[in-house]
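Support case: 2-acetamido-2-deoxy-beta-D-glucopyranose complex. Customer-provided input:
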Amino acid sequence: MDSSCFRSLSKFTACAIVVLLSLSCFSFTTTEAYDALDPNGNITIKWDVITWTPDGYVAVVTMFNFQQYRHIQAPGWTLGWTWAKKEVIWSMVGAQTTEQGDCSRFKGNTPHCCKKDPTVVDLLPGTPYNQQIANCCKGGVINSWVQDPATAVSAFQISVGSSGTTNKTVRMPKNFTLKAPGPGYTCGPAKVGKPTKFSTADGRRTTQAMMTWNVTCTYSQFLAQKTPSCCVSLSSFYNDTIVPCPTCTCGCQNNGSHPGSCVDADAPHLASVVSDHGKSNNLAPLIQCTSHMCPIRIHWHVKVNYKEYWRVKVTITNFNYRMNYSQWNLVVQHPNFDNLTQIFSFNFKPLTPYQAINDTAMLFGIKFYNDFLMEAGPYGNVQSELLFRKDKSTFTFDKGWAFPRRIYFNGDNCVMPPPDSYPYLPNGSSRRDISIVVLVTTLLSSIAFFFSCL
Ligand SMILES: *[C@@H]1O[C@H](CO)[C@@H](O)[C@H](O)[C@H]1NC(C)=O
Ligand SMILES: *[C@@H]1O[C@H](CO)[C@@H](O)[C@H](O)[C@H]1NC(C)=O
Ligand SMILES: *[C@@H]1O[C@H](CO)[C@@H](O)[C@H](O)[C@H]1NC(C)=O
Ligand SMILES: *[C@@H]1O[C@H](CO)[C@@H](O)[C@H](O)[C@H]1NC(C)=O
Ligand SMILES: *[C@@H]1O[C@H](CO)[C@@H](O)[C@H](O)[C@H]1NC(C)=O
Ligand SMILES: *[C@@H]1O[C@H](CO)[C@@H](O)[C@H](O)[C@H]1NC(C)=O
Ligand SMILES: *[C@@H]1O[C@H](CO)[C@@H](O)[C@H](O)[C@H]1NC(C)=O
Ligand SMILES: *[C@@H]1O[C@H](CO)[C@@H](O)[C@H](O)[C@H]1NC(C)=O
Ligand SMILES: *[C@@H]1O[C@H](CO)[C@@H](O)[C@H](O)[C@H]1NC(C)=O
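Agent response - structure generated as follows:
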């Protein structure tokens, strides 16, 4: 090979690598512990000391999910911390530690837990009333703030011994960890705040905690190290092509080495495979065989073009035979969400993380109607139609404008097909001039996807 040609080739490669690296740095910093669509989203754990006891205190620990669209679903949260001194947990109401630990130094009364680093889980629904407190016992499930603030809270009561009995001698626990149930959350240090004030049900008397501290935990998709869990497919009335989810988005069908890594929907033994696994209480997903292998697919169909309006149909399909999604939600970004006229059979809430942005919306099911996305099978889907009012200055079916820019399912970014595959208008020369923004966005998301796969 001509050496000068080779040199310029390698220069080009080096340049490309530098560009890719800087892009990937950018995508790392944007994914790390920061969500552009929910910049203040956090889970705050508030620890209110209600009374002092002869050797410690009784506290109510409350977890507030201040995230707009990320909830904690079954099997629920796990909270851990490290005691600063030799504290023990005498008893708990509305939650329990997973291990008692070594309580052999105690005679007579035995504490609930003597571990230096206890791990706490919620109790299950159906716990006897005398073992409950308000907001407990939901199996660790916490709704998101937008979907239902009333159930975005979880609480338990804890009686602590050997801890100090004044606000000067008590030491706050350290190293809080929150799993939901996997990784993803990072918790900061506990900070002493103003003692919480509680008012009685009739509002005629206010009481006050002896001492209050709180801990803030934030989520990062990067820390969660998840492979994608959902993908997007597209179609339109003006073109017969259905653009499927990219192949192998969430995994590849394994031909020989892992037989049974997915199930064929038409398999005659399907029912027995699915129910077998159900019995063994196995939580690993059991996915229907598809080219994308994602447990969730979002389909966006541009359905009708009216004079003043246009209509989209959105379908969410569950391909996981072992998962019912309760309180599911979608976050969708599309420039026309500033003028959504009507939505059928889903709830809608605009998300405006910054005053200037109003193209993002949260969609979620209607309580007792379709807020429960059933396991894979005939009922494993929910759907809705959206009616948008056209803004004459921006509206077009050209260049894939009618398709969403970004979709999240339950807070996880769903992988979009590459923009050059979008269905296009029959007459269009539109393919060549795909907007640079779309290209860069896709490049970034594919890099982020690539790194999250490592
Ligand atoms: C956590 O969220 C609450 C409610 O949105 C907010 O007031 C608070 O400032 C947030 N905390 C942090 C550390 O971001
Ligand atoms: C402890 O209580 C005293 C008296 O109520 C108060 O002045 C002080 O600020 C409290 N200290 C802390 C750390 O809460
Ligand atoms: C808290 O965690 C950090 C890092 O994991 C560790 O270095 C430190 O010793 C822990 N602190 C306690 C009190 O366990
Ligand atoms: C948590 O404590 C910090 C520091 O005292 C305070 O600014 C913040 O408002 C508290 N957050 C909640 C939710 O109580
Ligand atoms: C499985 O293997 C066969 C032959 O090797 C190939 O034709 C087929 O495309 C493979 N299927 C998948 C889903 O990879
Ligand atoms: C999903 O819900 C249905 C109906 O409540 C139930 O029969 C099924 O066992 C559930 N599946 C899983 C995997 O929990
Ligand atoms: C959305 O934002 C754009 C640009 O800032 C603004 O022109 C428009 O009026 C906003 N629409 C609504 C409904 O707030
Ligand atoms: C949204 O629609 C209303 C009428 O429904 C119209 O007055 C307004 O200008 C539209 N806003 C945009 C940004 O198109
Ligand atoms: C529909 O869009 C696809 C690209 O996704 C293109 O290949 C095809 O030619 C289009 N069909 C028509 C009739 O233009």
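Residues 3-31 form the longest helix (29 residues).

Case will auto-close in a few days if no follow-up is received.
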